[in-house]
Amino acid sequence: MNRTESRLWYDKPAKEWEEALPLGNGRMGAMIFGGVARERLQVNEETMWYGAKRDRRNPDARRYLEEIRSCIFDGRIGKAQKLLNMAVAGCPDSMHPYQTLGDIRMEFEGCGEPDFYERSLDLDTAVCRVRFRRGEVSYLRESFLSYPEDCLVMRISADHPGQITFTARLERGRFFDGVDKLGENGICLYGNLGKGGIEFASGLRAVATGGSVFVCGQTLAVENADEVTLFFCADTTAHGNPQTYESGTEKEQRRVLLRHINTIFDNAAGYSYEMLLKRHREDYQALYKRVDFQLEGCDEYDGYPTDERLRSAADGKADVGLCKLLFDYGRYLLISSSRPGGLPANLQGIWNQEFQPPWDSKYTININAEMNYWLAESCNLSECHLPLFSLLEKMQDSGREMAREMYGCRGFMAHHNTDIHGDCAPQDTWYASTYWVMGAAWLCTHIWNHYEYTMDREFLRRFYPVLCEAAQFFMDYLVEKDGYLVTCPSSSPENTYRHPNGETGAVTYGATMDNQILRDLFDQCLLAAQVLGEDAGENAGFLEEIRNARKRLIPNRIGSKGTLMEWVEEYEECEPGHRHISHLYGLHPSAQITMDGTPELAEAARKTLEARLSCGGGHTGWSRAWIINHYAKLWDGEEAYHNLEQLFAISTYPNLFDRHPPFQIDGNFGAAAAIAEMLVQSSSERIVLLPALPKAWKTGKICGLKIRGNAEIDIRWEEHELKECEIRAKSDIRNRLVYKGKCQEFAISAGEMFRFR
After folding, report:
1. What angle separates helix 666-679 from helix 621-633, to the nearest 10 degrees?
2. Is the pLDDT of residue 242 over 70?
């Protein structure tokens, strides 16, 4: 089976933002529209968050906490929620938004209606190309966002000399301070993000072969050039040494930013275009090419534009190539929006065109931010996971204040949102999400997940105190109810129920998801302590406290309809087809519910999914992606594949962005993770091969996935039968392989290889 490259392509320019093609280098993002006479590049920078850091703690939370708990236990849900909105909601109740950086607007002469047109995004090289022909002249625009050079590079060329004439401007609506020249062949735009907020600047430089380059007013102009290379970069005072910026005036801060941008341009211009492309490609492919997914027949529809393929899929035409494309696209997007040293991918990755985007484009940590990183470890992109842990460390200061001042607890905690500052206060005043207390706990489970895949003891040692602090909060927060220790107040994100007394509500105690997350958190604290030798001495008492608390959590329960219970009582759901399936956290991303370990709970999980879907569930893109992961864990390849088809038919924009609607990137990442789970599932106890292989994937291979224990795995199958499996150990590993009920144990040392046929 020949290797098939991955490429999105279209036969016309983008009219809408959701048709444009994304580029990114982790820190900056760009959406390429591909216009002929008029081109738009919408650009982003990861630290463009409006406003200054604020203390939003509600000073009355501790005073009313016991009364709120009493109301919840007594079934006075309306009274509890009213008190929560007054006494626990943040002051003010909302964080600031992530914002667009602006646009690069270009107008070209001599480029009217083309005779031929194609725009594409090559996922194998992370290069966007716009090709068109008008008369006898063929034009090519190649763009990429370079991580090594930390700037956007666009080469504009034609196959006849002197054909490149255009003007370019930097724009940002009304929300900037000024524009200026940046040397003799560049322009800049600068401003700030509110009182006490971040200062920012962006710059654009042109280097031409033939013709001329000049600046007139706020316009960069190129006339009669043979070829032009454009460089774009942005910088903010959120980067570098804070003292450099805090001690200076706005004008001095701006000077520092623009000097840095000019230095980046000078360094990039020191390379030929071919070398810039080579350095970009080598850096990107060092991550992207670790994994290779191939399916027989996946190139059947490569000759059709991507948007046309999606329309055909919606009409029921089978196109397995879209599965490969979506998988590769998910990996591409994570590499492009989450690099070490930067911020993690937010609700839109790094791509946002709004000043007030949906849900502020923040980090929603009751599923969405976590889903963004489900593919990081299994898809061999552990480095891309690191920004999430840096944010988690930043959250500790705010989280400790929330724990101490709002709840009278030790440790640290977070509610269901955070931002660039690590704000952990409640967000909004929506009962179904705002007063959930599990945000830090869920994020902390990623610490152990990263360790299991990398076996990096130094990483675990650094973040072990973070794990312990998250667990410590619950040692104080949990309260006794009917012999169990329960969270209160909390919720089951973001669902609502009808209480037997007739009241509708969302706040509750001891929700199933809370208990599942806490079992993972507590277990991982104990395991980490054992790995690090921290399970004796002064720490022993704390660990024993965790063990005892874990034993007293409410277990998973099966209700009268055979489904998994979401709440302590078998309440009626107000929305039976709700998009959140929070109580199946134990199935995925956790492994508390498994086909071979807890078959009764697995069957209850299946019935839960069936009930949700029969009532209209899966109507949002990210929810559908979660459902695909669930069916993968239930070893049901046909249902997993059916839901992949539904994702293409209902919840995918023309540029393959996930359609909530609106755009949220978690569905892209969740779907890519699900495809990996369909092919390989690993724990410290067993590795399951092809657990959810659908009939449509008759013959194929996956190479370079990671498994727990720090090893890479290659799998090849033909006619739905495993032909070969190869495991390459990066650490000493002992485990067992499972395929169609057959098991084989193996033990290999770091650097060794094991083959299974």
Report:
1. 10
2. no
HSE on the CB side for 268, CA within 13 Å? 31
As given in the structure block, the two tokens for residue 413 are: 């905690």
Using CA atoms, how far apart are residues 620 and 352, in angstroms rounded to an integer?
19
Count of other CB atoms within 10 angstroms of residue 726: 15
Phi then psi dihedrals of residue 737, to 5 deg: -95, 140
Residues 393, 352: Cα–Cα separation, whole Å: 25
**Cα separation, 159 vs 226, whole angstroms:** 8
Residue 499 burial by CB count (10 A; 0-12/13-18/19+): exposed, middle or buried? middle
Q: What is the mean pLDDT of residues 258-271?
A: 96
The strand pairing partners of 118, in sequence order, are 131
> Looking at the domain 7-48+100-288, which fold is it?
Beta-galactosidase; Chain A, domain 5 (2.70.98)
H helix count then E strand count, the chain: 19, 32
Q: What are phi and psi of 325, to 5 degrees?
A: -60, -45
Domain covering 63-71+80-98+361-370+382-554 assigned CATH 1.50.10.10 in the classification:
yes
DSSP character at residue 537: T
Q: Retrieve residue 429's tokens.
A: 């005043």
The tens digit of pLDDT for each residue in 544-602 reads: 999 999 999 999 999 999 999 999 999 999 999 999 999 999 999 999 999 999 999 99
The secondary structure of 61-101, three-state, reads HHHHHHHHHHHHHCCCHHHHHHHHHHHCCCCCCCCCCECCC
DSSP designation for 136: T
Which residues make Cβ contacts (< 8 Å) with residue 42, sequence separation at least 6? 17, 20, 30, 31, 33, 100, 102, 103, 351, 353
Question: What are the residues whose beta carbons fall under 8 Å from the beta carbon of 548, sequence distance 6 or more?
Answer: none
Q: Which tens digit of pLDDT belongs to each residue from 202-221?
A: 999 999 999 999 999 999 99
pLDDT range class, residue 537, cuts 50, 70, 90: confident
Enter the DSSP assignment of 240.
S
Structure tokens at 592: 């508390």
Per DSSP, what are the bridge partners of residue 223? 212
Q: Which of 514, 451, 449 is nearest to 486 (CA)?
A: 514
The CA distance from 627 to 630, in Å, is 5
Model pLDDT, residue 95: 96
Rounded distance between C-alpha atoms, residue 286 and residue 277, angstroms: 14
> Within its chain, how far is the Cα of 366 from the centroid?
13
Residues 105, 43, 265, CA angle at the centre, nearest 5°? 85
Note the pLDDT of residue 520: 98
Under 8 Å between Cβ of 217 and 234? no
pLDDT band per the 50, 70, 90 thresholds, residue 4: confident
- Res. 649: pLDDT tops 70: yes
Would you state the pLDDT for residue 241? Answer: 54
Non-local CB neighbours of 150 within 8 Å, separated by 6+ positions: 25, 27, 28, 233, 264
Provide the pLDDT confidence category of residue 246 given band limits of 50, 70 and 90. Answer: low
Radius of gyration of the chain (CA): 26
Measured between alpha carbons, how far is 524 from 532 in angstroms, rounded to an integer? 12
Residue 270 CA, distance from chain mean position: 34
Q: Hey, where are the domains in the chain?
A: 7-48+100-288, 63-71+80-98+361-370+382-554, 700-756
Residues 475-484 pLDDT 10s: 999 999 999 9
Closest alpha carbon to 165 in 129, 219, 117? 219
